[in-house]
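Researcher: Go.
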Amino acid sequence: MTAQEPDEVLFEGKGFVVTAVDGTGLFDPAAHGLEPRSISTSCYHGHIGHYAVLAQRLTLRDLQLGSAAEPPPLGAVRPRLTEDESWHYRGLALPIAFTGRLLIGRGDIPDRPYLNMGFRPAWMFLDVRELTFQAGALLSATDCSAALAQARPDIAATATRPAPGQEMRDWIDRTFSLSYDYSWPGRPG
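Model: Structure:
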């Protein structure tokens, strides 16, 4: 199992990675006639979205897609084949009608524990924000960094291995999820 490449979000001029999703309406390749395949062992689901919050709206700016053949244009943008044999759509401006919450993070914590599978959870980042959207419009942005820093020692003590009695396969599946429960175990509220 390998660490996975996360979707990214440009927010307040800074690059963050998506650590948890609670909602619906993020970019869905199938809804656009795209059939992704694994890009590599670090991208089993076959696509990586590069989003941005611009003028309080969520947009898809770039997309990396695994595909056996050249995929169709997305909007007016034709994909280009890259060295890693994936297809890149650059310069998109697709509005994304996401409704729900995104937990995003950036900056490694000191002495970050080793977890080389699945997606990196929020507790492994210094700067963590929760963005709440309604039909793609940003409703709120909350800095969760201090609250997560306070909870981190308790989380780190148990989150990098299966809990006693937990099946290894269940724990591995959990690391490949983008659930809030995995990304910030025991989150208040």
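Model: The first strand starts at residue 8 and ends at 11.
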